[in-house]
Amino acid sequence: MSSMNLPVTPVRTLRSKVPSAAQIRTDVLAGLVVALALIPEAIAFSLIAGVDPRVGLYASFIMAVSIAFLGGRPAMISAATGAMALVVAPLSIEYGLDHLIAATLLAGLIQIALGLAGVSKLMRFVPPSVMTGFINALAILIFLSQMPYLLGFDVPAYVMVAIGLGIIFGLPRLTKTVPAPLVAIVVLTIAAITMGLSTHTVGDEGELPDSFPVPLLPDVPMSWDTLALIAPYSLTLALVGLMESLLTAKLVDDRTETSSDHAREARGQGISNILVGLFGGMAGCAMIGQTMINVSSGARTRISTFLAGLFLMLLCVLLGDIVGLIPMAALVAVMVFVSLVTFDWHSLAPSTLSRMPWTETLVMVVTVVVIVWTSNLALGVIIGVLVSMVLFARKAAMQADVTSVLDPEGGTRVYSVNGEVFFASTGDLVDRFDYAEQGLSRVVVDMSGAHVWDSSAVAALDRVNEHFQRHGVEVEITGLNEPSRRLHGELSGTLTSGH
Questions:
Q1: Could you tell me whether strands 412-421 and 401-406 are parallel, antiparallel, or unpaired per DSSP bridges?
Q2: How far is CA 438 from CA 73, 411, 441, 463, 472, in A?
Q3: pLDDT tens digits, residue range 436-457?
Q4: Which of 20, 167, 219, 227 has the largest count of CB atoms under 10 Å?
Q5: Three-state SS at 330
Q6: CA-based angle 146:151:153, to the nearest 5?
Q7: Residue 43's Cα: distance from chain center in Å?
């Protein structure tokens, strides 16, 4: 993974012992850092979705607090995200907040259903090269998301970003008692206030709420027309949210060397989104940036996730005036740090690229390009998986081989098939036999070194048999393993010896 090592803990499962006092303190401080980083992000995502900033802030609060209890991945942060905001923006802009809330509720129900159906098991089909591409693309997107601030900063702000990065990277060499990002935020805020610097602040991003959210129901017609309108948005929200959350959970599993319950995470995401909708928020999911802030700060338990949401709301409601004074340069420094530690620099090392098969490098690059180009994480992962499948099928097809030997007494030729026989390899397989060989009365097709995977493979063997029979040659298929023999017996009329 990344060359910048994050704190790790011994491999363990969710049934870990009670966290120590030191771990609890670390989680509390990490939750505070995450809460500060969530505020401008939630405001920005609300604006993308075309709703009041409070909608995103309320969603982030409810999502983080609820997923801390319902989720299956401790220390992972879920809140309002840019990907979900982009999905729902057309609906909310054209039809209003109530339809957005209704779509959020339905998305939650769909996620619960998918979780119960075992959608989390599909994560095993995401190749490591796609996962690496997903991580690198996220790191790039996190950095690019800060460009509007960086391009709009003046000289003092750039100096603050540089000082902030210096604190974040330098402080851990002296002490790890307090998260370096938190120290950077506090120091830069105090410096900006005492020096009277006129710089862009959190308060400039949007108005912070002055009260906690209250339960509500969306004011939409209860009709099939409404369902038909919101269903496509809800389905997309559910799929994008689950994909981002499960991939982020897998990333945290790897970074912390711990295991988590992905099936529970999928169900928890759905329940949390229902709660978000009932409190007037927009749909959310796991956030890679804030999650990496949390993990790199040393957080390992659900306490950090819960407190990130609670601190977010307390800071807005009780300390909104003070929070509004935080310079965006401080938060930009934190997010740039996150992008740097998230990126898998080892994947670009010459030694790695020289050893890595070109197909895996291609899959990684395709995943990165699609995600960065479209800002659609789900689309990038899906295309990456499809490219990986095509390349694997091509490789497997090329490995199917046929060799033959003629019986010394003549009249019988034994063909040995080796490799995986499926739809991609059957065309070449049929052409590897000499059907018009003179003097043959019998052919043995030895399948002991092969495996028959699908109906195309069975049909190919049938064609081989038919071609030989047209020339008056008897065909015997031998050596099929039990699964191959069973499949061949079910789909073909050809008798097999099975030995």
A1: antiparallel
A2: 67, 9, 9, 20, 11
A3: 888 888 999 999 888 888 888 8
A4: 167
A5: helix
A6: 95
A7: 23
Phi, psi angles (nearest 5°) of residue 477: -100, 120
Query: How far is it, in rounded angstroms, from Cα 6 to Cα 180?
Result: 13
Reduced to 3 states (helix: H, G, I; strand: E, B; else coil), residue 485 is: helix
Compute the C-alpha angle 258/263/266, nearest 5°.
105
Residue 306 near residue 77 (C-beta atoms within 8 A): no
* Distance (Å) of CA 242 to CA 67, 118, 150, 216, 269: 13, 12, 31, 25, 7
Tens-place pLDDT, residues 217-232: 999 999 999 999 999 9
Question: Residue 48: phi, psi to the nearest 5?
Answer: -60, -40
Q: Which amino acid is at 53?
A: P
User: Given its phi and psi angles, is residue 175 left (phi above 0), alpha (psi -120 to 50 degrees) or beta?
Assistant: beta
CA distance 346 to 350: 9
88 contacts 289 by C-beta, under 8 angstroms: no
Helix (H, G, I), strand (E, B) or coil at 18: coil
Answer yes or no: are the C-beta atoms of 313 and 134 closer than 8 Å.
no
How would DSSP label each residue in 379-397?
Answer: HHHHHHHHHHHHHHHHHHH
Confidence of residue 495 (pLDDT cuts 50, 70, 90): very low
Question: What are the Cα distances from residue 71, in Å, to 19, 134, 308, 384, 486?
Answer: 18, 22, 15, 27, 42
The pLDDT of residue 264: 95
Q: How many CB atoms lie within 10 A of CB 154?
A: 12
Is the pLDDT assigned to residue 370 strictly greater than 60? yes
In angstroms, the CA 103 to CA 81 distance is 15
Kindly report the CA angle at 27 between 202 and 123, in degrees rounded to 5? 90
Q: Which of these, 219, 90, 79, 204, lies nearest to 148 by C-alpha position? A: 204
CA-based end-to-end distance of the chain: 47
Mean pLDDT over residues 88-114, rounded?
94
CB 301 within 8 A of CB 30: no
Predicted structure pTM score: 0.72
Are β-strands 284-286 and 78-80 bridged in parallel, bridged antiparallel, or unpaired? Answer: antiparallel
Compute the mean pLDDT over every residue in the chain, rounded to the nearest whole number.
86
> In terms of Cα–Cα distance, which of 111, 128, 130 is closest to 119?
111
23-55 per-position pLDDT tens digit: 999 999 999 999 988 888 888 788 778 888 899
Looking at residue 17, its pLDDT comes to 66
Split at pLDDT 50, 70, 90, the class of 6 is very low
